[in-house]
Amino acid sequence: MERIRTRLKAHLERAYAPYSGFPVVALIEAEGEEFLGVNVENAAYPLSQCAERNAVAAMVLAGKRRLQRVHIYSPKGPIPPCGGCRQVLYEFGGAEAEVVLHGPQGYETWTLGDLLPRAFGPKDL
């Protein structure tokens, strides 16, 4: 866990969070590989992108479709992913995927099922 935490912290400065001052880094473990994402804010707030969704985009671009674990780090953490990110993570991980929330003082581990009970997913279509 310490290797992941060190890697997350090393990429924190790449987050673009000039408006909120709330940088976030996400790392997804998927099919034996790791994919990073940082939050990217925009002056038009609705156009901002969360770190988790940017990490999912990197995973999909690499041809992966199933995540096993996502790590989320913020110096203000541990913080859970927003509702939209929970839904996107569920699409690719399902209820059993692990979510590890890192902060300066440590980490907490949850499942997506814990964070998004009764989720809507591909099986519901």
Secondary structure topology:
Elements: H1 2-11, E1 25-30, E2 33-38, H2 51-61, E3 69-73, H3 83-93, E4 98-103, E5 106-111, H4 112-115
Parallel strand pairs: 3-4
Antiparallel strand pairs: 1-2, 1-3, 4-5
Summarize the model shown.
The chain is of the alpha+beta class and about 120 residues long.
Task: Describe this structure as you would to a colleague.
This protein has 125 residues and is an alpha+beta fold. The chain has a single domain (2-120), classed as Cytidine Deaminase, domain 2 (3-Layer(aba) Sandwich), CATH 3.40.140.10. The chain has four helices and five strands, in the order H-E-E-H-E-H-E-E-H. The protein has helices at 2-11, 51-61, 83-93, 112-115, and strands at 25-30, 33-38, 69-73, 98-103, 106-111. The chain has a five-stranded mixed beta sheet with strand order 2-1-3-4-5. The mean pLDDT is 95. Substrate binds at residues 39-45. Its cofactor is Zn(2+). Belongs to the cytidine and deoxycytidylate deaminase family. Zn(2+) binds at residues 50, 82, 85.
Anisotropy-based shape: globular
Mean pLDDT over the residues: 95
Q: How many domains? A: 1
- Main sheet, how many strands, which sense, barrel? 5 strands, mixed
Helix/strand order, N-terminal first = HEEHEHEEH
Q: State the end-to-end distance.
A: 36 Å
Tell me the structural class. Answer: alpha+beta
Q: What ranges have pLDDT less than 50 throughout 5 or more consecutive residues?
A: none
Number of strands: 5
GO molecular function: cytidine deaminase activity; identical protein binding; zinc ion binding
Organism: Thermus oshimai JL-2
Family: Belongs to the cytidine and deoxycytidylate deaminase family.
EC number: 3.5.4.5
